[in-house]
Amino acid sequence: MTGMIKLQAADGHRLDAYRATSEGTLVAGLVVIQEIFGVNGHIRSVVDRFAMQSFDAVAPALFDRVGRGIELGYEAADIEEGSEIRAKIAQDDALKDVAVAVELLQGQGRKVGVTGYCWGASLAWAAATRLDGVEAAVGYYGGQIAEMADEQPRCPVLLHFGETDASIPMSHVETVRAKHPELPVYVYPAGHGFSCDARVSYHPPSATLALERALAFLRQHLRG
Fold first, then answer.
1. What is the pLDDT of residues 143-156, one digit of tens each?
2. What is the CATH number of the domain that holds 34?
């Protein structure tokens, strides 16, 4: 199964989501939480890649609360537009959309994790601390995690950051580490968006290592 599906959040909001499912034996369900660019071609490719790694993966279209079918690129104008759209979406509403994707996958009778990138990583952290049914979370360069570091995750969490990320100072990473010394927090010799192969900041060695760690972590905590 690969393609767009329809979901309905707890508040009645209807949204699209992109889903891809492995045809073989599944490890678990995985909610992939978008950046500030919508469920664009890159995010769909991320979902496809996780499906190839035996996950039932779903990316809810969080921007549907502002406008349907929003897909942006990675130029300066796209960043500005994406930031403006994100600012219009309350975090609690975005989490409702993540929650309905979690519930969909739970309904398949397997464990469910979340992973997110940029804005999505901050939401993955919030999902780990606030939502029922999330059993593992992986975040890539989440800029708001330090602000929420007083919250206690209900499940295992793994975090990735770039040491040359201009938008997330290392002091934020150290805040997270200090408040959660039990969590694996990795820093790579790369900048913001290092895992996105559609961005100029893409850093293949860091992206490869981060994905290896993420997959091992998710398989460890979501099997069975």
1. 999 999 999 999 99
2. 3.40.50.1820
